[in-house]
Amino acid sequence: MSLPAPISDPLEQLLHRCHRDELLPLARMAGVNQQLGLSDLARNTARFARLRASHGLGNLRRGQGLPYAELLAQAAQSLGVPVQSELEQTEILLLNRWFAQRWEGQGLDARRILWARLGLAGDPPEKGDKAADEAERQLGRGFGYRVSQLTEPLRRSLGWVAVVFGLTPLGCLLRPLLFPAAAWWFLRPDPQIVVETVVEVARLRQIVTRRVTIGIVGSPSSGKDAAIKALFGIDSGNISPVAGSTREVSIQQLPGATALYVVNTPGMGDVVEAVTEEARQVLNHIDLYLYVVNAEGGVQAREKADYDRCAATGKPVLAVVNKVDVLRPRDKDRYLEDARAKLGARTEDFLACAFDPLPQLSPQPINREGIHRWISEKLALSGKDPSELPPLPQAPSFPG
Predict the structure, then answer these.
(1) Alpha-carbon distance 127 to 195, whole Å?
(2) Which structural domain range is residue 132 located in?
(3) What's the pTM?
(4) What's the domain count of the chain?
(5) Do 227 and 124 belong together in one domain?
(6) Can you tell me the distance from the alpha carbon of 249 to that of 102, in angstroms, rounded to the nearest whole number?
(7) CA-CA distances (angstroms) from residue 189 to 48, 58, 71, 132, 153?
(8) Checking CA distances to 318, which of 28, 273, 368, 386 falls within 20 to 30 Å?
């Protein structure tokens, strides 16, 4: 079986990394059938977004629209910002200018609300350029992502434009009837459409690159809360040896990170089905899973079923056997190999650890560095910026 051809278009590459619901606003803007499969949706949205924002007469010749880099340059020229060597660098400048222009049209109360939504301190500046520069200064590398969350997806009906672009069969019949001068008039470049398209693409790039969502899954008392504390420094106050202490999905944003979310769920079955729509959206955006198994309980039918549900999402899954410190040394290797085989995990996606080990055996969590390294590598492979993953928190010392 031949492998699919690599994607050369940078815009299509980006859209293939989006979740379906993230891609739909741009698909609607481009007039694409939203019922397509994700791969076709990304490919068609990339093509028709370029067509929508390109010069109509040029489209008759090219059939694909301008390359995204040229559209980005047009948008930069329209907003008066310099083109940078990297696409994202230019997009950040565009988001800065877009934010400044939007700011100018807001009243005092609206500006205060926007400032608060960005999580910024102090009184909001009155002038748009000062507000954008101050927001970028305070937010640093998180500026693009935070501002991208303020964009309201633009839904402009294509109407007759879609017809003459040739997005419908009728368009193919009408295009030859247009006089060149009339075609130029109706299909002339619209800077607003170019800017709308590029701002939406910039928004998607920030979401795809900066937002990281990590799912911690496992049976009750497997050690999920202890894992979250050891790996991310988040104390849920729920570290308890009582089975069933985690009864619902919890979603926590890591303080100080751009947009790193940790999802704690006792399983991927009925509990997940019963969560709110808002929580389900977060679950749908999980980038990778840590599946935690209690070494004292082993791999049973429930663990196998939940692990398989995680793997079925197509996202990377690391099987983590917790509490290995309680295993007898002579039994450890045999137990771990048996657990790996029962789960069906690959060797490179299987680690043993102890998030809250017996104090007499280790004063600090065991092998959390290996888990942190696995997460960082998988984020990089999926197109995320691995530096969005903060360093491991200072290891807690357990009482002796």
Answers:
(1) 21
(2) 10-208
(3) 0.76
(4) 2
(5) no
(6) 37
(7) 15, 10, 11, 28, 21
(8) 273
